[in-house]
Amino acid sequence: MRVRRSLIDLDDLTAEELAYVFERTAQFEREAPGPLLAGIACVNMFFEESTRTFTSFNLAELRLGADVINLSPENLSLAVKGETLEDTAITLGAMGVCVLVVRHSEPGFSQRVALAFDGHVVNAGDGSHAHPTQALLDIYTLVEEWGDVRGRSVAIVGDVLHSRVAHSTMHGLLRLGCSVVLVGPECFLPASYAREGVRVERDLDAVLPEVDAALLLRIQRERLSDMPISDAQYVEAYRLDGRRLALARKDAVVMHPGPYNRGMELDDAVLAFAGWRYASQVRHGVGVRMAVLDLLVNGR
Ligand code: NCD
Q1: Is 25 part of any domain?
Q2: Same structural domain for residues 33 and 66?
Q3: Is 284 touching ligand 1 by the criterion CB < 6 Å?
Q4: Distance (Å, whole) CA 284 – CA 282
Q5: What's phi and psi for 168, nearest 5 deg?
Q6: What distance in angstroms lies between residue 95's CA and the mean position of ligand 1's atoms?
Q7: Is 233 in the same domain as 243?
């Protein structure tokens, strides 16, 4: 079986390909790309809830003229009839399905699909491991803002440990020469993260004045059996609100991958802040995913 190009995490892309994805994203956002995926069957398999990622992959595929099929877990023989992942991949490949977009709660699940499937696999989130297209759209949002992320500094705040977004975005930013400060309580941010070439800080108030951007994270309650910190303690130390925003630089950028919980990691003052870029992130999600699908299927 020929192993086709997949995107499991950002390190599957060379520096040149990363630049190319951003170039194509800008181009596809300016003008409709045309049917670059005409006749290409894409199957979206989301075993975990998704609003943004699911919709934007669908839109990206439709705008590129692909044939789009959404398989929900309850309709998959994999889940209810005991068919293995490997046999599911063989079955879909035999029908000529070319692209599988996969979200699952198990780290490494998309990689397992990629090893069994004769086509392209895009990881739309595997447990707390990786979420490469979210990282691409986060970084693209910052590149649009600044021209380049090199020499800038970004704080990633909250439940880093369980966040696939934090893991992929952090590595992407470091690769592009941006410094990263991780901020959170020990239970969501073990000190061992400092080995990854990032700074680990506990005091958000001390970090806010020095960074160019803050990426806020949702507490991934679905990956926790018990909440290791009370909501009140978390809010007290880490919620971005009007008082904390006053500590940030006037031109600071604030982002969140969504879904955000008002009152928990942020409050309404953040949604009214001039540097709040959530809508741009979501918008770029469609362009970035078109660029990734085009690169994997058609090459450069
Ligand atoms: C994130 C995810 O699912 O990993 N959301 C997203 O894809 N935009 C983050 C989250 O669920 O908190």
Answers
A1: yes
A2: yes
A3: no
A4: 6
A5: -70, -45
A6: 31
A7: yes
Residues 245 and 199 grouped into a single domain: yes
The CATH code of the domain that includes 168 is 3.40.50.1370
H runs (alpha helix) in 96-131: 109-116
To the question of pTM greater than 0.85 for the whole model, the response is yes
From first to last of its 300 residues, the chain has per-residue pLDDT tens of 555 699 999 999 999 999 999 999 999 999 999 999 999 999 999 999 999 999 999 999 999 999 999 998 877 777 678 888 889 999 999 999 999 999 999 999 999 999 999 999 999 999 999 999 999 999 999 999 999 999 999 999 999 999 999 999 999 999 999 999 999 999 999 999 999 899 999 999 999 999 999 999 999 999 999 999 999 999 999 999 999 999 999 999 999 999 999 999 999 999 999 999 999 999 999 999 999 999 999 999
Q: Contact at 8 Å (CB) between 187 and 229? A: yes
Q: How many angstroms separate the alpha carbon of residue 46 from the centre of ligand 1?
A: 13
Q: Which residues pair with 201 in a beta bridge?
A: 183
In one letter, which amino acid is 239? R
- Best of 48, 105, 122, 131 to mutate for ligand 1, by most ligand atoms within 8 A of CB? 131
